[in-house]
Every structure is written in C-alpha cells, then in structure tokens.
Amino acid sequence: DYLLATALVMHFHWGVEALVTDYIRESLFGKVIPKVSHGLLLLFSAATLAGLYMMAHNDQGLTKTVKKIWAIEAKQ
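^ thats the sequence. predicted structure below, dont judge the formating
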C-alpha cells in the first residue's frame, strides 16, 4: 500500500508539475505566481501522500478500499 501510494502521488505530482511549468510561465504571470503555484503543488502532494499513508496505516489500506469501491460498482 505504501509503494502504491507513493507511486500514485509521484505520478500525479510530476504530471501536474509539467502543466504548471508549461502554462504558468514567468513571461505571462510574473515571477511570484509560478513560484506560489509550485509551492502549492508541493503542499498538495505532501498532504495527499500523508493522507494515503494514514489510510494505509490506520485504516483498511488503499488496495482494500479500491476493491470495496469496485465491488459496489459491480453490484449496481
């Protein structure tokens, strides 16, 4: 579960980081907004990773949660 959580957050972070870098450029927004955007992305990624780790450690885990969600979808 920890490896899956880490891989998911890294994949998300790198993808959104590329979007932020490409679309929130200094030439369009100045020097402050791109730095703030990258900082917020780091904060959001860290919070997401912490939440997934807490789920893996204190709750039933990430894979069991996904299995339960798929089971609910299969019944409908």
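The mean pLDDT is 93.
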